[in-house]
Amino acid sequence: MALEFMIEGPEAAPFTLLLAHGAGAPMDSASMTATSAALAKAGIRVARFEFGYMAARREGTRKPPPKAEKVMPEFMAAVEALDMQGGALFIGGKSMGGRVASMVADALYADGTIKGLVCLGYPFHPPEKPENLRTAHLETLKTPTLIVQGTRDVFGTRAEVETYGLSPAITLKWLEDGDHDLKPRKTMSGFSTADHLRAMAEETAGWMRRVTAG
């Protein structure tokens, strides 16, 4: 099955973000589409792709999400296959996609392939299992990293994450009352989903500029 990309944003953008989906929704889900549109509006070229198990579902083959380690080679293959048009390459993803990106980032950063990593709603632990942390590699991560997280994300709330010993290479951007899709309860927070997606995109673009400026 040939790897396909969904690309949007300015062709001459200074930054390209290779973006992977989460465990349960495809690259063209409503959440991924809204996220990509916000990033593109902020001036970032976004390239979405799917892991093989998700692409197979389009052909009627229902496969459960594999362990993150199993799809690391697929992320590396996507980096190889992407047609870069100049500018700096960043990798990242939503939830599981961001986790997989974080697991391959240091090798790609060390050889100069990427400039950084962007994780949207990082799955620090499974819901209701805060003892099952997925943070060991984040403690020594060398790649400049931006994690955008909702303060009430069941995969890692602000109160939980602030107790972790994360690498100094990681910058955390918290979105008030956001859930795992960064969606807030407007009556509780005063913010809308559109507000949070715009804030995420603007933070990401500004962070990319700072990273590439050295």
- Going by CATH, the architecture would be 3-Layer(aba) Sandwich
Strand order of the largest sheet: 1-3-2-4-5-6-7
Distance between the termini: 39 Å
Poorly predicted sequence stretches spanning 5 or more consecutive residues: none
Could you say what the CATH topology is called? Rossmann fold
By CATH, the superfamily comes out as: Alpha/Beta hydrolase fold, catalytic domain
Q: How many whole angstroms does the radius of gyration measure?
A: 16 Å
Major sheet attributes: 7 strands, mixed
Describe it for me?
- This protein has one domain (6-213): Alpha/Beta hydrolase fold, catalytic domain (Rossmann fold, 3-Layer(aba) Sandwich), CATH 3.40.50.
- It is an alpha/beta fold.
- The mean pLDDT is 96.
- The protein starts with 5 loop residues before the first strand and ends with a helix.
- α1 crosses α7 (193-213).
- 34% of the residues lie in helices and 18% in strands.
- It has helices spanning 30-41, 52-57, 72-81, 96-110, 158-161, 186-189, 193-213, and strands spanning 6-8, 15-20, 45-49, 88-94, 116-120, 145-150, 170-175.
- The longest helix is centred in the C-terminal third of the chain and has 21 residues, at 193-213.
